[in-house]
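Annual report, structural modelling task.

Input specification for the acetyl coenzyme *A complex:
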Amino acid sequence: MSEATIRYGDREVKLPVIKGSETESGVDISRLAAETGLFTLDRGFGNTAESESSVSFIDGEAGILRYRGYPIEQLAQQATFLEVAYLLLYGELPNRHELDAFTGSVTRHTLLREDMKHLFEAFPHNAHPMQILASATSALATYYPDALDPRDPKSVEVSCRRLLAKMPTMIAWLYKYRVHQPYIYPHNDLDYPSNFLYMVHSLPTEEYIPDPVVVAALNVLLILHADHGQNCSATAVKLVGSGEANIFSSVAAGVLALSGPRHGGANQEVLEMLETMEAAGGDVSYFIERAKDRSDPFRLMGFGHRIYKNFDPRAQIIKRAAEDVLAKLGIDDPLLNIAFELERVALSDDYFIERRLYPNVDFYSGIIYRALGFPTDMFTVLFALGRLPGWLAQWKEGAEDPHTRIFRPQQVYVGPTARDFVPISQRP
Ligand code: ACO
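The model returned the following structure:
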């Protein structure tokens, strides 16, 4: 086993270096505080692994993403979303029998309790879908009190399947409520993405039969979003889970973490940014200049990534898919051309080159969601639906790891030192 040595004052400590199965190595600093009195300060956890994980591997320099060893490109091209969900949850691709059993069991849980309708109806019609989804996900726990014990594998198993099955129905129903349309019940003869599209777009008066091009595009998008290592929302899920909160509460925390514009909320913001550019006549240079101005908080949404420093492999697949889907559906979307132009200009600009800022997963996804008939403020809930298997797999991994401890980071306290209480009558 290799070691790293840390010297501080007259003390020296040797720390073990843990090697991953790919290129990564990490110094195990768990003895650091006890042996030196020091702990580490790592803003945004850019240098810190909280745990070992076998779910997905990312090489940010080489633009590689693999789920359980399988390249994302192969999965996006050849797998179904539920097949990928099985892979993430159980570590191996299912055989035909295993996939049929898994699909059958997920499908049997697609209905929501009837009284959940009242929950959607408690929100204003213009409530943001991510807020409603987080509340509904958390509320699910109240309907299944018999299966909440995070230490009971059977409860965890059925809860994972309930979440996978019910999230499409919750998203479709919150959408229906927002657009003042009747709820459409799941149609269990349909596959996962088709059933979701059916519940979103059907009316009691007019059945929507999903176009295979649309189903295939949604399947690819869900797969591409299914996991991404220790990102902000997965870490939120694991953090809440580390306190032994139930899996519904943990996933609700993930939904809320995903909603921020620096994370999943960026997909909505990208499209709004492209629409603003279109309204301004399609000239992207003004926005590029604003993004480069450090006194302006504006950022080019859909650009940059903490890990990917050459390209985001998901963005490359989605870019090709966007072109393909729009062509097949016969849609000429001016936003696609603006996005191409923005990418071209940004990638030849020194500011973006020096900082290694490239389009990320959110840059082109909104253009496809728009082509599939989703309003802009629904984009982030679609991301959440895709990311769900990764959250569940990582939550399970944490719950099953005997080394898991409650997440409880240190801090470097920089506030006032001890002082005596001053009665209010004596304060200036
Ligand atoms: N536009 C303009 N400048 C940017 C952008 C951007 N989109 N992203 C980063 N920068 C600049 C920063 O201002 C900073 O410049 P400086 O060194 O002169 O101060 C430098 O690049 C490094 O940026 P950080 O914020 O330190 O990078 P970090 O790794 O912390 O953040 C993040 C990554 C949050 C994704 C960032 O690139 C960003 O805000 N992008 C836009 C939002 C976005 O698209 N989010 C989705 C990410 S993918 C996902 O979560 C699903």
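The beta strands are 3-8, 11-19, 25-27, 56-59, 64-67, 70-71.
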